[in-house]
Design goal:
86 residues, mainly beta, seven-stranded mixed sheet, 5% helix, globular
Length: 86
């Protein structure tokens, strides 16, 4: 798997909630199960079939008062697809 992060906090992200896009990439998704993921805190680009599916962050995980653990997965909404040039 190719994982490229633009900052260190993104490297800790393994599971996210995806909205829209292909049915195989919707709902709760474990990024470590995917072949190629390029991401930052605001965007995720996932190789899927013969292209890349693009998602943007719509909701960061909620952090309860008192510094406890995060309570929800980050949510990303599908914004488009690009094909891989042949």
């Amino acid at each position: 798997m190719r994982r490229v992060a633009q900052d260190s906090s993104a490297m800790a992200m393994s599971s996210v909630h995806l909205e829209g896009g292909p049915s195989g990439l919707s709902g709760s998704v474990d990024l470590t199960d995917l072949t190629e993921v390029i991401f930052s805190d605001e965007k995720i680009k996932i190789r899927y079939g013969n292209g890349y599916e693009h998602f943007e962050c719509t909701q960061a995980p909620l952090r309860p008062a008192g510094g406890g653990a995060e309570s929800e997965l980050m949510t990303f909404r599908w914004v488009g697809r690009t094909k891989i040039a042949e």
